Amino acid sequence: MSTKNEFFHPALSPSTNGQQLFMRKVAKHNPQVFTCVFIRLCLKSLAALWHICKLFGLCKMGRLFLTKLDGAFYTCKLCHTHLANIEELMSKTFHCRHGAAYLFNSVVNVTVGETEERMMTTGMHVVADIFCVCCCQNVGWKYEAAYEEAQKYKEGKFILERGRIVGGPKEANLISSDADEA
User: Fold this and answer.
1) Domain for residue 65, yes or no?
2) Per the domain annotation, does 61 fall within a domain?
3) In sequence order, which ranges of 56-181 are alpha helices (DSSP H)?
4) Residue 128 bridge partners (DSSP)
5) Span 26-44, average pLDDT
6) Residues 145, 157 contacting (CB under 8 angstroms)
7) In Å, how far are 63, 96, 106, 164 from 18, measured between CA atoms?
């Protein structure tokens, strides 16, 4: 294997060939995850971040415009970016690996990852993870398709994991904190 490191800025390159190979595989097969993780690592060095953004074509013209929501809304737990208006909340009875999850009709300020088939408690679905557009945290998923007729209502809807969001009306916070203790 060549000792030349053509993929990474020298100041941030992984220390072993195994780490380099792993990062190349992640970049190739799951660019959304690679982008989010690697940009977080690069925040230590602005020059390195610029190099990585140029290398992977992440630099886009203009600035990031965020949708600001009025009234009661939910935000990303890490960076407080607005994600969903309380009026878009359809159900609080969903669950994810980490606890409670809410079903929304629509969300804002997210990017949608690649679709995949995933077995859920209600059957097989085609879903895509959704990420906060600012901090790249995985905040939930989007239902793209459902195989069972009874689950078709979920298609095009979004799940936000309760542990990765904050906000909403005061009664929503009380209900969710009671449910988390049970």
Assistant:
1) no
2) no
3) 170-181
4) 115, 142
5) 58
6) no
7) 36, 33, 41, 32
CA distance 111 to 152: 23
Count of the separate structural domains present in the chain: 2
pLDDT score, position 11: 41
Place of tokens 């990062």: 23
Q: In what order do the strands lie in the sheet with 165-167?
A: 82-85, 73-76, 165-167
CB 147 within 8 A of CB 124: yes
Task: Say if residues 159 and 101 touch (Cβ distance below 8 Å).
Answer: yes
Helix (H, G, I), strand (E, B) or coil at 171: helix
For residue 129, is it within any domain? Answer: yes
pLDDT, the chain, mean: 75
Q: Both tokens of residue 23?
A: 């990062």
